């Protein structure tokens, strides 16, 4: 974890290799250090993003920037599920000033960089 220029904690949600909802939920639990009781469903993800008490240490005070990387394979494999995930990320950002979710590179960090188009 790092900080951005505004002092917010930056966490990367690495979706490289994820092609289904279960994988997305597992990565969210891992990369966001969500509690064991995280329900691994859409409502639980939305609730967790809205609850600073379950964010990584320090993020509630500093603010949190969540950078979603490696998402393209999931978006292509399950476009309907990815649309729901994007909606949850967008709503989480709109809820208040503490959280900002942004899409980073869509490809795997282990492969070549994404190309436009």
Q: Structural class, judged by helices and strands? A: alpha/beta
**What do the pLDDT scores average to?**
87
Subunit organisation of the chains: single chain
Work out the radius of gyration: 14 Å
Largest sheet report: 4 strands, mixed
Spans of at least 5 consecutive residues whose pLDDT stays below 50 are 109-117
**What would the principal axes of the Cα set say about the shape?**
globular
Strand and helix order: EEHHHEHHE
Protein name: Barstar family protein
Family: Belongs to the barstar family.
InterPro entries: Barstar, Barstar-like_sf
Pfam families: Barstar
Description:
The protein has 117 residues and is of the alpha/beta class. The chain is 39% helix and 16% strand. The longest helix has 16 residues.
Q: What topology emerges from the helices and strands here?
A:
Elements: E1 2-3, E2 9-14, H1 21-31, H2 42-50, H3 59-62, E3 64-69, H4 72-77, H5 79-94, E4 99-103
Parallel strand pairs: 2-3, 3-4
Antiparallel strand pairs: 1-2
Helix pairs in contact: 2-5
